[in-house]
Amino acid sequence: MGKKATILITDDEKSIRNALKEILEFENYSILEAEYGEQALQIINSQNVDLVMLDIKMRGMDGMEVLEKIKENKPELPVIMISGHGNIKIAVEATKSGAFDFLEKPPDLNRLLVSIRNGLKSSELIKENREIRTELHGNMDIIGNSSAILSIKKMIRKVAMSSSRVLITGENGTGKELVARAIHNNSNRASKKFVDVNCAAIPAELLESELFGHEKGAFTGASAQRIGKFEQADGGTLLLDEIGDMSAESQAKVLRALQENQIVRVGGNERIDVDVRVLSATNKDLHSEIEEGNFREDLYHRLNVIPIHLPPLRERRDDIIILAKWFLERLSDREIIFSGKVFSNDAFEELKKQEWPGNIRELQNAVERLALLSPEDVITAGDVQKFIQQKKKPSEVLNNLIDKTESFHEYKDEAERLFLLKKLEKHDWNVSATADAINIQRSHIYNKMKKYDIER
After folding, report:
1. One fold for both 313-387 and 396-451?
2. What is the β-pairing status of strands 306-309 and 277-282?
3. How confident is the model at residue 138 (pLDDT cuts 50, 70, 90)?
4. Is the pLDDT reported for residue 140 higher than 70?
5. pLDDT in tens, 223-279
6. pLDDT tens-digit profile of 316-336?
7. 313-387 belongs to which CATH class?
8. Rounded to 10 degrees, what is the CA torsion of 256, 196, 265, 222?
9. Any residues with CB less than 8 A from the CB of 3 and at least 6 apart, and which?
């Protein structure tokens, strides 16, 4: 016989708690009780609870506030709201905030038991899917304690339970797909498919077929019917990655699909209903793309209901230590060759000094390189300097030079003038010594000095 599911009944009316407890214990559930919201949260944080029944109107913290706190800390925990003041508006608000179901007092016995069974089943499916995804793809948590990352985690919890579209922006390697998967995993669609399509990796002429599918014979080479990404994601979540690289024609068709919640396969006439939550991601500035005529403004507004921007790693340097430790631990778990490797404090400080233009993806590669190439178990600052070579940013002088020159020819002449001036100063204006150092003839230096009006 399986373990009893534990249900927490939260209601400030003792008679209601007693009635529900009697019914549910008869149905072989283990029951915990809370009289008010704060007590319910304490029980949830200290004991194993499989489902919560939560009254909306209570003294102190009301049910909606408690629901929000539960979803922040345990988004997979199913919560059934109960209220003696039931109306559509409250029910909709509760569902948007993550409630599994909404029942009016006194609840119909059959409806109550069905809702509890479905809630527990949904929770089990979410847990099983998370375990399977972890086995297939590894741990997919969002790592970091910076204020920016904590804010993003809170936003994910808040928007996950809705079906609102989310536009995720940020540089390459900042973790946009990870955020999209976190939204899916914390949503009511977690038991369904998460499907992603990279709009930049598929030729424009094939993208429509990839998204919407095609019928047999729709074009040369279409030897069989193909189901597209929208249909594959039916009931689940579709991530349109690198949306800024989508062709104008494909943009128009995606816009229509979003407006009508229907698609038509290439070469077909049948309209097919799809229930898909669309998330999108890009490293481009879509405002600029719109101004330049490369991206449809109406599609942008359809996609950008909830914006989430991921900051580059250089803007959250305190997370570098946490991430580097985490990547090293994952390597140690994966292969024995990495076992026993640790970072010294000065290595962490050296990692924090780097610019990380490739962001988290670059840091992950760097940690693996250091773990493999460092000669000792303790990875030092010297190892970081030796094995992590990054392109230097242009100097302030070069940046100023770029800003003040308009043409390549003008830039080249000004750069040449500055180079020659510095080398002459370095060799105390000895033309012969300067010519030998920079490997050109003395006559060329005299010609350049005359051309650029260089005088001591």
Report:
1. no
2. unpaired
3. very low
4. no
5. 888 899 999 999 999 999 999 999 898 999 999 999 999 998 988 888 999 999 999
6. 998 999 999 999 998 988 888
7. mainly alpha
8. 150
9. none
Q: Give the per-residue pLDDT at 41.
A: 92
- Torsion angles phi and psi, residue 382, rounded to 5: -60, -40
Identify which of 376, 352, 377 has the alpha carbon closest to the alpha carbon of residue 366: 352
Measure the CA–CA gap between 242 and 172, rounded to whole angstroms. Answer: 10
Least confident of 148-157, 340-349, 420-429: 420-429
Give the CATH fold of the 396-451 domain.
Arc Repressor Mutant, subunit A (1.10.10)
pLDDT higher for 59 or 266?
266
CATH class of 151-309: alpha beta
User: What fold does the segment set 6-130 form as a domain?
Assistant: Rossmann fold (3.40.50)
What is the average pLDDT value for the chain, to the nearest integer? Answer: 87
The residue extents of the domains of the chain are: 6-130, 151-309, 313-387, 396-451
